[in-house]
Amino acid sequence: xxxxxxxxxxxFLSRFEGVGYxxxxxxxxxxxxxxxGGIKFKWAVIISLITVVIVFMFGMIFSAMTxxxxxxxxxxxxxxxxxxxxSAENILTAETRPxxxxxxxxxxxxGLMKSNIPGLEYAAVYDLGGKLSDRKExxxxxxxxxxxGWKIPRDVLDDIKNVEEFxxxxxxxxxxxxxxxxxxxxxxxxxxxxxxxxxxxxVFSEESILGPVRKAQLFILIPSFxxxxxxxxxxIYISGGMVKPIRELAGGxxxxxxxxxxxxxxxxxxxxxxxxxxxxxxxIQHLREKLQMQKFVSKSxxxxxxxxxxxxxxxxxxxxxxxAFLFSDVRGFTAMSEKMQPEEVVEILNQYLDxxxxxxxxxxxxxxxxxxxxxMAVFSGPDKASRAMKAAIEIMEAxxxxxxxxxxxxxxxxxxxxxxxxGDVVHGRMGSRDRMDNTSIGxxxxxxxxLCSHAExxxxxxxxxxxxxxxxxxxxxxxxxxxxxxxxxxxxxIFAVTGYVK
Length: 502
Prior knowledge:
Blueprint: H1 2-26, H2 28-86, H3 89-94, H4 98-114, E1 120-127, E2 139-142, H5 154-160, E3 167-174, E4 180-192, E5 195-205, H6 206-257, H7 272-294, H8 299-309, E6 317-331, H9 333-339, H10 342-362, E7 366-371, E8 374-379, H11 384-408, E9 415-431, E10 436-441, H12 443-454, E11 460-463, H13 464-469, E12 475-483, E13 492-500
Parallel strand pairs: 9-11
Antiparallel strand pairs: 1-2, 1-5, 3-4, 4-5, 6-8, 6-9, 7-8, 9-10, 11-13, 12-13
Helix pairs in contact: 2-6, 6-7, 10-11
């Protein structure tokens, strides 16, 4: 049940966020503000909303409690005033003339106005049975003395006849200047010997009662506004500390996107951002390792891994393809190795192999493997034969230039022989389930290797299939006498390619 509750809560928050961001995206201006402000802006808005809600709730509670207390105090004041008027009962009962009683009550009510009681709009004593005034159902007394003796309006008379205990209600009172104010109207029965003979009415303006509360609210609003400003600055400061490492991470990601894998995030924090920084550094380390590993496998192998890994585990097998193959072998390598230290041999060999590999790559070829001093390259596509021959010719030209530079520096030089063939092969994963190579198997591969073995230093031998595929008049060379190779019953027609028309 608790998991369901958590899931429902998360789902609700997700929907709420979705609706919120949807509304923001609809407004171009608001969307721009939110995106430019980022986390700082969002934190400032959140802190502001929380502060406003807290202040609002505090203000509401304070106002409600204070208003209730002030109204209660005013109720007691009105009961006291009414009690003072009612206390004249002994004097009034001693006086038998209603007119005289009315004058006594008038003195009491007029005294209230002279007391300057804040918020008192008026006080009146209504006569109901002719006991308090010489006119039945009239004003026995009023703070506006000219009203004494006036007939009570019918609607007021109907209301006060039902007053049997202390009553209070909120009314709109119209003053002499025709302005209307909200007031509290208090009524209390006037009794002689527990017999209701009239009603005492006292009216106070609401502003006089709740004015202090409203002033207090204003005083609360000022520090609340200062608190809000302080909260915004604090939120910006705190969010700035959060945003800085995030921006550093974003900068690191952009550098990685541009190919820079030397990035290292030095963000020492003991929180989720610190964990993210560590994971980012781990990711970069793995990328460096994978980048280094790519140097040990062919381009076609990497493409195959990307293609096959999405569908699960990579298994053995391949498919038939028509490809062109270039084999290049260093001549005199064994003899040179016997006269030099292994480190020197490796250094020289790497220079020549790298030179060839770059040219093959520039012509769209893929290095299948290096076998000692030999290079095996694969070309695919509609112009594979033409590109393979161009690569071979450029390799010969580049090695001649490189050898000239080395001879000028009195360094050892080597030459290569190249063989090119093309045909149908099976290209794919060969080997065992635990260790496999992505390579090509077929007679076309074997013949290319045999042609390389027959090539003299500085020469390029190609098969008739390659010549047939190449554009006419694009390459220069000559046809040679057919040769016999291992595994072939008949002699193989071959051609020597010496250059191409640029």
